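Feature request, filed as a ticket because there's no other form

It would be nice if the structure record came with a short human-readable summary line next to the tokens. Right now we just get the raw output. Example of a typical job, pasted below so the devs can see what we mean:
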Amino acid sequence: MHMLSEKIAADLKEAMRSKDSVRLSTLRMLKSAIEYYKIEKKQEKLMDADITAVIKKQIKQRHDSIDGFAKGGRTDLVDKEKAELAVLRSYLPEELSQAQIEEIVKAVIAEVGATTKADMGKVMKAVQAKTAGRVDNRLVSQIVSTHLA
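Raw output as currently delivered:
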């Protein structure tokens, strides 16, 4: 299934036509990151799950940049990164709500028989498998540690 790469390519062309500079530069960076990932993994074609992983990595980079620029007082750059973040997020499946994550975490804790913080890795791995790219892992981590405290 290579639907995501086709959508990104089509949106890139559309951004060129409509002269949407933010979307255009963001998609060019994303396309480049996807190409690097292909080379790194020695693959001709990537599955949507791989592309989603690349997008998530790009999103994490934007979050880190926003934190850095905010600390440095560069609101102009913060706004640029936030705009790119919105473009990148539009390619991810809809995120689960905190309540949905809580339910999954509780179920997983019961499933794996987790009782202490030492079980955190096991729980996180199982939760990530069930939520496949539809959650912010930092939030999941907070919820898991609250339930294992």
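Something like this underneath would help us a lot:
The domain at 98-148 is CATH 1.10.10.410 (Arc Repressor Mutant, subunit A).
Helices lie at 3-17, 21-41, 48-71, 75-89, 98-112, 120-131, 137-148.
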